[in-house]
Amino acid sequence: MQALTEQDLHNLAMNFVGKKLQEMGYEFVAVNSKLKKYPQFVLFKKGEPTIFVIVKATKNLQNPNDYDTIWIETFLAHAKKMNAKVWYAGVGIANAESVDLPVFKDQPYYFAFDDFLKL
């Protein structure tokens, strides 16, 4: 069995969040799926400000929205200069048999996603 890489897990989270955003009626101005390149999504919806979405895949199913506060403050300052709002999407992904095992390719896994944190 092959364990998913950090990039693979990030891509799963990106696909999951992208579908949610489309269901909410947002258009993608830009998408960046590279790890540690932010924001992952730049959104547009007529009559609303630009929205930057940060997507983070985590093994933390209990609190997928935990984030680095100092880093977020820096990013929020950048977004403010661009007149953009920031949403954080923490997506917990874990092996369906045991959270102690890695997520394997073509094996069941769980998603934990509460909602977008509007920062």
Automatic annotation (TrEMBL):
<protein>
    <recommendedName>
        <fullName>Na(+)-translocating NADH-quinone reductase subunit F</fullName>
    </recommendedName>
</protein>
